[in-house]
Automatic annotation (TrEMBL):
Entry domain remark: Composed of three domains: the N-terminal N domain, which is responsible for interactions with the ribosome, the central G domain, which binds GTP, and the C-terminal M domain, which binds the RNA and the signal sequence of the RNC.
Binding site for GTP: 108-115, 190-194, 248-251
Catalyzed chemical reaction(s): GTP + H2O = GDP + phosphate + H(+)
Entry protein name: Signal recognition particle protein
Protein EC: 3.6.5.4
Main function: Involved in targeting and insertion of nascent membrane proteins into the cytoplasmic membrane. Binds to the hydrophobic signal sequence of the ribosome-nascent chain (RNC) as it emerges from the ribosomes. The SRP-RNC complex is then targeted to the cytoplasmic membrane where it interacts with the SRP receptor FtsY.
Molecular function per GO: 7S RNA binding; GTP binding; GTPase activity
Subcellular location: Cytoplasm
Keywords: Cytoplasm, GTP-binding, Hydrolase, Nucleotide-binding, Ribonucleoprotein, RNA-binding, Signal recognition particle
Family to which this protein belongs: Belongs to the GTP-binding SRP family. SRP54 subfamily.
Domain SRP54-type proteins GTP-binding stretches: 269-282
Origin superkingdom: Bacteria
């Protein structure tokens, strides 16, 4: 499960603090050194770690904390609060267009989980009594269109496709029109990925963006790729003005660095977390719950 190493290490640091009636400056410094190492080992971006530790120290060192009844607990609370803030503070909800349909554009590298996440999002929206339309805009990856159609059949959501010979920009344009004509209140556009960020892909995504004017541009990133996921997010964000991130594969044994760094590095909120291959494995991302989970 994700974050295992980090949780174990933080628990060790905190159990030492918790046991103490009085906490010295030296104890706090020692704890902060250990938290710092634990975060670095969890593959959290080093700048993010530096700022995080500085913030925690600023709050933890002081008379109020030292003279409180349970200083160890106060420090643990501070770490918990800062971890929550690091991941965005509070839940960041999906935007909704004033006039339907709300357009969600899914972007990301190949294999990150865009197509499956599109299906999962559609299912989540259906549960909220919405009528999403899936648009098959990934014409390059063999079988991506079929994969989306199969997902659509499973959840009984319509899938708009023009095959793989029409440009994705045209598919997106017609898909949006189709949604308007058929009363779909959400349009989820699955776009093509690449193995690496490249200019051609970005240009295509920018064109789709200008044609459909999305309410959300959601970057799907594989949390198992750690710092790479954060670099990818930075790249996409420079080119496309992302509105949110979906972290996938949090069910795997990711060390957690991506989840803990991506908001701080890009400024983009994490909106959803995917914790499995099944269609109901997508959850709204709650920073405070994730922080509590990490702290164990
Ligand atoms: P795309 O190329 O970005 O469209 O990626 P896909 O949607 O085809 O996903 C790539 C692979 O990752 C598939 O085998 C998915 O089942 C798998 N996958 C996606 N999300 C998750 C997740 O949250 N957990 C796990 N374990 N697998 C996932």
């Amino acid at each position: 499960m994700a974050f295992e190493g980090l949780t174990t290490r933080l628990q060790n640091v905190f159990s030492k603090l918790r046991g103490k009636g009085k906490v010295s400056d030296e104890d706090v410094a020692e704890a902060m050194r250990e938290v710092r190492l634990a975060l670095l080992e969890a593959d959290v971006n080093f700048k993010v770690v530096k700022e995080f530790i500085a913030k925690v120290k600023e709050k933890a060192v002081g008379k109020e904390v030292m003279e409180s009844f349970t200083p160890g607990m106060v420090i643990i609370d501070i770490v918990n609060k800062e971890l929550t803030d690091l991941m965005g503070g509070s839940q960041s909800k999906l935007a909704k267009a004033n006039k339907p349909p709300t357009v969600l554009m899914m972007v990301g590298l190949q294999g990150a989980g865009k197509t499956t996440t599109s299906g999962k999002l559609a299912k989540m929206l259906q549960k909220q009594n919405s009528r999403p339309l899936l648009v098959a805009g990934d014409i390059y990856r063999p079988a991506a269109i079929k994969q989306l159609q199969v997902l659509g059949e499973q959840i009984k959501a319509p899938v708009f496709t023009l095959g793989d010979q029409t440009s994705p920009v045209e598919i997106a344009r017609q898909g949006l029109q189709h949604a308007k004509d058929n009363g779909n209140d959400y349009v989820i556009i699955d776009t093509a990925g690449r193995l690496h960020v490249d200019e051609e892909l970005m240009e295509e995504l920018r064109q789709i963006h200008s044609v459909v004017n999305p309410d959300e541009v959601l970057l799907v990133v594989d949390s198992m790729t750690g710092q790479d996921a954060v670099n990818v997010a930075e790249h996409f964000n420079q080119q496309l003005d992302l509105t949110g991130v979906v972290l996938t594969k949090l069910d795997g044994d990711t060390r957690g660095g991506a989840a803990l760094s991506v908001k701080a590095v890009t400024g983009c909120p994490i909106k959803f977390a995917s914790l499995g291959e099944k269609l109901d494995a997508l959850e709204p991302f709650h920073p405070e719950r994730m922080a509590s989970r990490i702290l164990g």
